[in-house]
Amino acid sequence: MSHGILDHAGALRTAGLRVTKPRLAVLTTLEDAPHSSADTVHARIQELEGPVSRQAVYDVLHALADAGLVRRVLVGTASRYELDTHDNHHHLLCRDCGALLDVPCAVGEAPCLLPSHDHGFDVEVADVLYSGLCPTCRADRTATKTTPTKTTHTNTTEDDDLV
């Protein structure tokens, strides 16, 4: 894990949170591996820091999201997490391999997109998830479609001679 690129301890203090080893471990993990699931964060922390409960990781992720230090990205019914840099970016999702990449907002400042009818809401942010095929998966699909398959047809019925 890379330590010291971002001041995680300072960010925790600024957010009014105590600086704890689990919080620092989650922030450092997300710095090194953005767009990780809670299970991935848990596995990486266990690998690098030693035993930690899955529930502790979930609790820390939720506390950090509530404090605005971590952003939860909902992909279908699964959550992925990244450091919240408050830079108004969106995401590209490959629907085959699950790759999730950041893309800058095409319009500008948040909320960057407004609904045609806001139903009285004060819209603060628009979370945009573009979905499609990444270059690798698109190439794999193209290769699969253009590769001829050898199909052998043999007629083994006795009725073939009766015509």
- Report the average pLDDT across residues: 84
The CATH homologous superfamily of the largest domain is named: Winged helix-like DNA-binding domain superfamily/Winged helix DNA-binding domain
> What is the CATH topology descriptor of the largest domain?
Arc Repressor Mutant, subunit A
Question: How big is the Rg?
Answer: 24 Å
Q: Provide the structure class.
A: alpha+beta
In whole angstroms, how far apart are the ends? 75 Å
Strand order of the largest sheet: 4-3-5
Characterise this structure.
- The structure is a single chain.
- With 163 residues, the chain is α+β, with helices and mostly antiparallel strands.
- It has 2 domains: 85 residues, Winged helix-like DNA-binding domain superfamily/Winged helix DNA-binding domain (Arc Repressor Mutant, subunit A); 61 residues, 2-Layer Sandwich (Dna Ligase, domain 1).
- The protein is built from 5 helices and 5 strands, in the order ααααβββββα.
- The strands form 2 sheets. The protein has a 3-stranded mixed β-sheet, with no helix packed on it. A two-stranded antiparallel ribbon has the order 1-2.
- Helix 2 crosses helix 3 and helix 3 packs across helix 4.
- It starts with 7 loop residues before the first helix and ends in a 17-residue tail after the last helix.
